[in-house]
Amino acid sequence: MATLQSACPLDCPDLCSLEVEVVDGRVKRVDGGTRTPITDGFICAKVRNIADHLYGEDRVRHPMIRVGAKDGTALGRFRRATWDEALDVIAERLREVRDRAGGEAILPFHYGGSNGWLTEGALATRFFRRLGASRCLRTLCALPSGMAARSLYGAVPGTALEDYADSKLIVLWGMNPSATGIHLVPIIERAIEGGAKLVVVDPRRTPLARRAHLHLAVRPGTDLPVALSVIRELFASGRADEGFLAEHTRGADELRRRAEPWTIGKAAAEAGLSDLDLGRFVDLYAETSPAVIRAGWGMERNRNGGSAVAAVLALPAVAGKFGVRGGGYTMSNGEAGWGVSAEAGIATPEPATRAVNMVELGSALTDGAPRVEVLFVYNCNPTQTVPDQNRVVRGLARDDLFTVVHEQVFTDTCRWADVVLPATAFLEHREIRRGYGSMRLYDSAAVATPPGEARSNNQVFGALLEKLGLWRDGDAMTDDELAAAIFSGDAGGRLRAQLDQHGVATPPIERPRLFVDLAPATPDRKIDLVPAALDAEARGGLYHYEADPGTERHPLALISPAISQQISSTFGQLRKGEAAAELAPADARARGISDGDAIRIWNELGEVVCRAKLSAHVRDGVVVLTKGLWRFHTRNGQSSNALIPPTTTDFAGGACYNDARVQVERHA
């Protein structure tokens, strides 16, 4: 037995260090490491029990080629193949389609939130760029919020998670750390023990909302008017920091003008809040320092999402909350001045080929032009994560679509593949990953032997580069060569030295404070409160509010939040029980629904049949059906994605998961 060091790249802000016990190449136990104070020796149950994922019955262990009809059934429709045969079949089809229909008839479909620079990017990106394939716009999460943050502040990190211990007011806005970043929870607890107040803005009473000093249970999609009303009241009551705004911002007067219509009363009515609670929040925020906002990605997932994030991120500027430890905001800390990126390893510029928004995969496969003839899926499970699920499946069912899926376990997307390739998991290949909450970077070697014939992304796409004649002399082709390219240069040398000495690297400023240790990374080093580019792109202009899309026929807002047992759809095969949709007791009574009843949730896009769970933690007018469900979790094989429209956010083309409007009834 050996105890080896690793790090968790899964889509979570914490980026935990790990200690992995391995016997004969097989993972026996995983525990939290101590190379970072964020992890502090404990990890989530998902990773603690990852051996169930690595060695479970659903693991893909060898290449498979379809031999039966494309009808969505499982393993009986495939035969085992060798790697040489599978790669030859793929290379032949790619070459034929490229030469006949052009590279844009080929669509790589990938997200990579749970991957680092060696498995999202690297040889896969190089391969499809050189092939001239269509580009996949990775819009399912964080693009609107990232664009908002960079437009207002430039590429700078926010408040370090460790510094929340110094905060006297912590606002969790659209963020549920109990499910999506558990290491912030004990830091918040320490702050509360020291006298800090906690405010949670979320349609549900999450675990931390139940302990909060104030919970604002907003209606989904109304974060924008709530934030604008706070901005308006800060100005109107003389509690905006006019000196800070004059010295360090642009656009303050225009922001004030755009917030003016949103009185406390008007915003509270729109969001389903009491005037008193919203006014109390303004008072707490105005009068408390240090105050920090942990902005989550929940509030971007609607028609107003980009503007909502921008308005929330403008709050610490208007109230003058910067310059003290524990004050400001945190969105993503991925931009912490590392000075290195995956592009150095890719070594091929992005071509000006067609871009396909991930949100619109269904339409791209069914009526897009040029017609998609090859779909190559990796680092993604689109049947369970992309909106308008039924249209996506109709596209995947096309007999003339050739689909390749490189995957660790046999997902629902694999059911529609023509070729399935076994992929390694993160403990089975080298990975370089920087955190987007914790400001840490790891270069983790493989610690376990892949089961069966699993291969990494770089092994697969390296072979395809060679088979299609896209390899060039001097290309970095191995993980070691790619890592050397990434860490070339002065910044990379500094990080490499830290990694070699400590096993973990930190940015040049480990816990930066905006306006003390660094300035906004905008051209004039000022916060741009109404960025012209966002204003031009946003529908109706930045901070324009679009009303609720609910109708009399479909009045309830369906939201699909993350849960602690999964990372999106990853690990879904391990959850064997039937899913339950949560309803407020009043909404259930109005429909004659009792706890445990079979219910039908439906709209014009599809329907989901599952159990009902009555919950006092869900506000009226909202239905909760968690994201990442697999077909066996519901009685009719559909998930919340079957009900989610393929509409996009006000800018950046993000997914509007929380804009699904549905009706619910008892199911016979």
Tell me the fraction of residues in β-strands, as a range.
15-25%
- Counting H and I runs of at least 4 residues, what is the number of helices? 22
Total number of beta strands: 26
Low-confidence stretches: none
User: So what's the overall shape?
Assistant: globular
**Alpha-beta content class:** alpha/beta
CATH class of the domain at 64-139 and 341-491: Alpha Beta
**Biggest sheet details:** 6 strands, mixed
Mean pLDDT figure:
97
CATH topology of the domain at 64-139 and 341-491: Rossmann fold
What is the helix content?
A: 25-40%
Radius of gyration: 24 Å
Distance between the termini: 55 Å
CATH architecture of the domain at 64-139 and 341-491: 3-Layer(aba) Sandwich
Sheet with the most strands: spatial strand order = 5-4-17-16-15-6
List the helices and strands and how they pair.
Elements: E1 2-7, E2 17-23, E3 26-32, H1 45-48, H2 51-54, E4 64-66, E5 78-80, H3 83-101, E6 106-109, H4 122-131, E7 135-137, H5 143-153, E8 169-173, H6 177-180, H7 184-193, E9 197-201, E10 214-216, H8 223-236, H9 242-248, E11 249-250, H10 252-259, H11 264-271, H12 275-287, E12 291-295, H13 305-319, E13 328-330, H14 343-346, E14 355-357, H15 361-367, E15 374-378, H16 382-385, H17 389-396, E16 402-407, E17 419-422, E18 431-434, E19 441-444, H18 457-467, H19 479-486, H20 489-502, E20 527-528, H21 532-537, E21 556-559, E22 580-583, H22 585-590, E23 598-603, E24 606-614, E25 622-624, E26 660-666
Parallel strand pairs: 6-15, 7-14, 8-9, 8-12, 9-10, 11-20, 12-13, 15-16, 16-17, 21-25, 22-24
Antiparallel strand pairs: 1-2, 2-3, 4-5, 4-17, 18-19, 21-26, 22-25, 23-24, 23-26
